[in-house]
Amino acid sequence: MDGTINSLFRWPEAGRRRTADIYDRYKTESLDDIPDPDRRRAYAHFFEQDLPIPELVPSFRGLLVDDVGNLWVEHYRLPWDARRTWEVFNPDGRWLGTLTTPLGVRPLQIGPDFLLGSHRDEVGVERVRLYELVKS
Questions:
Q1: Are 40 and 34 in contact (CB under 8 A)?
Q2: How many Å is the maximal CA-CA distance in the chain?
Q3: CA–CA distance, 111 with 135 (Å, rounded to integer)
Q4: Is the dihedral of CA 42, 46, 28, 84 positive or negative?
Q5: Which residues lie below 8 Å from residue 18, measured CB to CB, with a gap of 6+?
C-alpha cells in the first residue's frame, strides 16, 4: 500500500437519523437492557449529565471486504434494530445494493454467493451458519 486512494465511496445522507429524535428512546432501551441494578444506576447517572450530544446518529458501524473485493458497509445500529443492514460497493466504488442480515450473525467469510457467519443460540452456544446470497 502506498497510501493512494483508488476508489471513492459515497451514498446520500438523506437517511441519517437526528439524535434529538431518538435520544429519549435510546436512554430507555439502553437502561432496560441492563439487568444489574447497580450498573443500571451508574448508566442512569451518566444519562442525566449535561454532556454534548452529536447532532446526527453515526452513518455506519463497520466495514468488511468480501472474497471478491467488494466493500460491505454496515449501517449504525440502535438498540431496537432487529437486523443488520449493509450497503455493498464493488472495488470501483459503484453501489451494488443493500442487504440485511439477522442481528446475531457475525460474518466470518463472504464469498461471491454465500455468507458464512456465526451466532449464539438461546443458550449461548456458538453455531456456524451458511447463508445463500441471491443477487438480482
A1: yes
A2: 51
A3: 12
A4: negative
A5: 55, 56, 57
List pLDDT tens digits, range 89-128. Answer: 999 888 898 999 888 899 999 999 999 999 988 888 999 9
pLDDT tens digits, residue range 32-77? Answer: 889 999 999 999 998 999 888 888 888 889 999 999 999 999 999 8
Q: Which residues pair with 87 in a beta bridge?
A: 73, 98
Cα angle at 76 between 90 and 106, to 5 degrees? 70
Q: What is the pLDDT of residue 44?
A: 93
CA angle 76, 54, 29 (to 5 degrees): 55
Whether 116 and 109 have beta carbons less than 8 Å apart is answered as yes
Q: Which three cell numbers stand for residue 26?
A: 435510546
